[in-house]
Structures are given as C-alpha cells and as structure tokens.
Amino acid sequence: MSTEIIRVPDIGGATDVEVIEISIKVGDIIEVDQSVIVLETDKASMDVPSSMAGKVKSISVKEGDKVSEGDEVLVIEVEGVEASAPEAVKETSAAAPAPAAAPVAAKSSSEAKVSVPDIGGATDVEVIEICVSEGDMVEEGDSIIVLETDKASMDIPSPFTGKIGKISIKVGDTVSEGADILMITTESSETPASTEATAPVESAAPAAESTATPVSGGVESVNVPDIGGAEGVEVIEVAVAAGDKVKEGDSIIVLETDKASMEIPAPKSGTVKSVSINVGDKVSEGHPVLELEVEGSVAVAAPVAEKAAPTASAAPQASVAKAAAPVDQSAVLSTPSTKVHAGPAVRMLARELGVGLTLVRATGPRGRITKEDLHAYVKAAVQKAESTSSGVGTTGGAGLPTVPDQDFSKFGDIEVVKMSKIQRLTAQNMVRNALVVPQVTQFDKADITDLEAFRKGLKGEMEKQGVKMTPLPFLIKAVAQAMVANPSFNVSLMADGESYVQKGYVHIGIAVDSPIGLVVPVLRDVDKKSVVQIAKEANELIKKALDKQLKPIDMQGGCFTISSLGAIGGTGFTPIVNCPEVGILGVSKADIEPRWNGKEFEPRTMLPLCLSYDHRAVNGGDAGRFMTYLNSLLSDVRRLSL
C-alpha cells in the first residue's frame, strides 16, 4: 500500500484556472480516468481525470480555488505499490523511479485536422455554439461545436481524444461538409517492455480485458434512409448511445409523423462511436444519425477500452447519495433558455440521460449548468410525473384530459397492456379533434340498388383483370366529385383563425383497421381517375396498411376521409373530423328496405351515410347540398361518368 499525489495536468498553458466542481470526497474509491475535479476558464470547462485507481486520502483544493499546471489536487492511496518508506512517494530523483508510480509510457504526438462530417447534404449551416477552446482536453465523442439548420440542431463530436489546437471557425459562421473546424493534437502511448513488471495498477485489471473482440472495419456515417419523402419528421426515441454494440437490423432511432411511427434499423453490425441527433429533433432523408465503427475481423482488444466503464458507474452512486435530498421543482425552468452554458462532461451526461439542457436551471459559476443541476432536474421531472400520474383528472402527454386511475384488480383478474405508438397517437388526435373542432353530424341513406347491380355484373370481368371491385371505389369516386361540386368541403382553416386554404386538388383518405392501429392512407387526385384505377390503388394501399408497409408520405395530404364499417355492421355512427380536414364520411352496412315508388313498396338496397363536418368552415346548407349531390351520384351510377 502506498500514497500518490494527483496533480493538475497540462491544461494548455492556462494559469489561475478556477475549480468549479469537486467530483469526489475523502474515502471514495476511484478508478483510472474518473473525473476528480472540474476546472473552468472564461471560454470552456474541463474535467481533470485521475491518473490511477485507489482510495482518496485527502483533497488539497476546494471549489473557488485557482490552480495551474502541476498544482496538487489530492492524495490517493494505491494498492499494490511498495515503497521503502513513506517519503519514497515524494521522491523525484532517478534513483527510485519504479516504486514511486506506475511506469510512464513513451508518448508520441501528432496533429490532426477535424472537419465538418456528413450532415445530410445540408450547406451553409450556421454554427450556434463552440463547446471548446484552444488548449482544452477532449475525449472522443465530446461535442466540439453545435450546428443549426432551419429544422434541427446537431452536435458535432470530436473524432479523437487529445488537446484542442487552432480553431478555424466562430459562432455565426456558416459551414458545409468538409469545412475545417479545428486542429487537435493526439497522443499515442507505448509502454517499454522493461517496465511491464513494475506496473501493479495495470496488472490489477482483470485478464478478461485482453479477450478477442472484433476489429473495426472502418467508421461509417449512418443517415436517415428513404422515409417516403417526409420532411421534418420528429425523433421520438434514440435507442442507442455512444459505445453501444449493435447488430445489423437493430433499431437505432424511432421517428414519428402525425399519423405513423417507424423504426430506423442499423445497416450493419458494429460499435456506435457518436450519435448526431437527439429526441425532439426534426429530420429528413439523408440527415446524419450516428457514426458506426463497423465490425471486421477478430483480434485482441486493447485493455484501455475497459477504463471508461467505472466512470459511468460513478454517476448512479452520486445520485443515490443525494436521493434523500428534497426535490425542488425550481430546478426546471418555466421557459426554455436561449443560451445554455455547460461543459463537455455535463453535456455528455445530459445526452446519456436524454435531457435537453434548455429547461435546466443553472446554479454554477457564471450561469453554468453543473451535474448537480442535471440530477436535480431529472428528480424534479420524475417527482412531477409520479405526482400527476396518481392524481384525479390528470392530463396526458399532450396536455389533454384523461380519466383518473383506478384499481381494477380488486374486482378480478386484470392485465395492463401497453398501447402502441399508433394507438397512443390516435387517441391524442381524437381527443384533440373532438375538443377543438365544433363538429356536426348529418345522417342520410343512399339508394344503391342500381349501383350494386352494376358492380356485381362487372365482378367476373374485373377479377380476370386482377381487380377486386367493392362498393368502396364507387364511394371514393362519388365523394371526389361531390367535393369538386361543393368546394367548401375542400378547405383547411389557418391557425390565425382569420383565413382558410382553398385546395385545388382532391386527395381522399380511407381509414384502415391495421394490425398496429387505425391508419389513413391517402389516394391522390381521385377526381381525375376512373373507378377501376381507384379500385386498384385503394386495394394496394389497404394491403400495405395490413402488412405494416405504409410510409409517412402514403398518409399525408388528405382533403377528406372516408371511414367505412362495411360488413362489420351497424346502422350509423358519428365519425370525428380528421383535422385539418373539415369533413369525414362514415359508411355503415347496406341493407334492403321497403321503399314507396308511388304505387307500391319495393325492396331497395339502402346505404346509411353519416357526414361529420367542421362547423367553422362548413354550414348546414353546404352539408345539405353535399349530401344531396352525393346521393344522386350513388343512386344513378351513370352520373359517375360525367
């Protein structure tokens, strides 16, 4: 057992740097590379890591102190290092170099240029933050700059571990792929063979560190693939983090439009080097997702890779130690901050926790966010979620009212089933539409006796052409013509409440009960297509919906929706308007009813129709004319050809 002194390392020539955080306390067991203190200059903050593992005996600095390179930070008790006397620890002469510390590796430095990586083809992207300054030490994966487009912001990570040299850009500059960012000095170490026997700290590591692991097949950028032409799709989940191992096909992120969600899989197996997006970002095809070190052949892994794990485990210990402290809801800002000041270590922890820093209240020097601020924010958020989830009349994630929780288990056996993303989104949209849209539902019945006779007469001919001819294509065609004749149904209200958009196209959505929930694929330019064309396209979209193959573009741009219960049954229902559309037609099961023809009752096939509309855009007269025109088309199939 021996004691060693941890000193301030090379910090780029900076002097009188302020200590803003002490990350450990006397008695702690710390690992190699674990952060012990955090320093801050007027431009950046930096973590000072421990150069060896052991037990903290004493701490020589406190928050607010000014330090420079070589100043004593703490004294650590190291196991396995023998010295002839306590004074041997402080010896600096060449007479006793081996017992004083672990062998010093011979280091060679090289300077590398860091450029803007692939950013999805975007050009002239603005630099909104520079996270480092010249002289800073950074780890691979630390954020060095933040870029912002008109749709999203992205952190650019450091590809190497080393010291920051000359920085070529400044806040406000616009950059594109390949633009120079900065120079970074990297160091490679080679421990001399003659000192291997005197390295007790390294020899204490498990032998498993040298097990065979895949060698990198190269680092590749993974971008958002073809998502059907959708723009600005929200990232609702990031399923991986830097350092994670992924297999080809594993989900890495989940995207969600207003109608569907989709998982983006890893194109290859490998190790995630850095992640370029966060939850809440808006992305499109080609947007960078992450850097992936692709697996190659098998070789012996470097033992250094195992040193990062103890540092990550320190965070839970710190949070457990503070768990008993009262949680202050003031840790959460009421409005997002326009300027966020935080060091690389805090930013990395925030990414691991999935926390956006704009709502975290800063208590550190000069308005900087500390790790304690981050933990306080997370605790406050958890406490708030727990308190609201058990309350009566709470609200859902979208701020919409929900039913209070009840204990149903006291009445019998139950099973709690998690709703799918589509089901949750549909529920939120239905509540929102029902609350926001002042809607009216009008009921009628269409005489489709002749239409059904015509359709059944075509059935054999259509089947030879591979077309399944149901009543739905006729309904879609009739609705499209009714919208052309009654353009008040082909509008969307503007958010200002003072104007509306009159559409010059007719796209019809059809509600489909798919395995993942209710989806509404859209047929385009229906008014310009024949019933046969509509039948083919509708059948293709329905098949894609049932096979869970719909893309976001397949469910966008609708002007009006048809929801048909068909053979399921029922005589009528009140469909909810699919905002921002202003009308929806509900169709129930057709039935034979007696109808008076002026002389006698005769059997006629009657189709129940339920027209719901947004009363802000459509009045009763418009709806009456729409329904009358629609009935005339369905009652006389010849009119569909006009």
TrEMBL record:
EC assignment: 2.3.1.12
Keywords: Acyltransferase, Lipoyl, Repeat, Transferase
Any one Pfam family match given in the protein's UniProt record, by short name: E3_binding
Span of domain Lipoyl-binding: 3-77, 111-186, 219-293
InterPro entries: 2-oxoA_DH_lipoyl-BS, 2-oxoacid_DH_actylTfrase, 2-oxoacid_DH_E2_comp, AcTrfase_Pyrv_DH_cplx, Biotin_lipoyl, CAT-like_dom_sf, E3-bd_dom_sf, PSBD
Cofactor dependency: (R)-lipoate
GO molecular function, one term: dihydrolipoyllysine-residue acetyltransferase activity
Region (Disordered): 188-219
Start and end residues of each Peripheral subunit-binding (PSBD) domain: 341-378
Protein name (Swiss-Prot/TrEMBL): Acetyltransferase component of pyruvate dehydrogenase complex
Organism of origin: Marinomonas ushuaiensis DSM 15871
